[in-house]
Amino acid sequence: MSNTLVKKILIVDDDENIHDIIKLIFEDEHYHIKGILNAGNLEETIANFLPDIILLDILIGQYDGREICNKLKHNPKTAYLPVILFSALNMDNLSCSPNDIIEKPFDIINLQEKVKALLNSNKLV
Q1: Which residues carry this modification: 4-aspartylphosphate (predicted)?
Q2: CB-CB contact of 32 with 7 (8 Å)
């Protein structure tokens, strides 16, 4: 498999267990997965890792994932990146525009389908 074909998933969540679960869910897909616990250096992480998709929690310590999502979607350097926002919070009034949302606890099959659909739709970009 060529490295150019390997899709990269960036997990932004302050719960390390979520990182481990998502890595297990996608291990058979051979995705390159990176997890960060703090969104403070997110722009640098994105620039270095070059993810194909971002899985972003709403509550990340002192950071609000909705605000981060808005910044990503309004920045020309990151606006193209699909973002899946997830949280145990009610997500009726998000005040941001992620590509998709997933409520915690999440269904494994649902997560896999949403990630694959966004990665496949991004091939045309």
Answers
A1: 57
A2: yes
What are the residues whose beta carbons fall under 8 Å from the beta carbon of 10, sequence distance 6 or more? 33, 34, 35, 36, 45, 46, 49, 51, 53, 54, 55
Structure-token pair, residue 29: 């897909």
- Answer yes or no: is pLDDT of 94 > 80: no
| Helical (H) or strand (E) element with 103 | strand 100-103
Burial status of residue 10 (CB atoms within 10 A of its CB: 0-12, 13-18, 19 or more)? buried
- How far is Cα 91 from Cα 80, in angstroms, rounded to an integer? 22
pTM of structure: 0.90
Query: Which pLDDT does position 1 carry in this prediction?
Result: 40
Structural domains of the chain ordered from first start: 3-124 (3.40.50.2300)
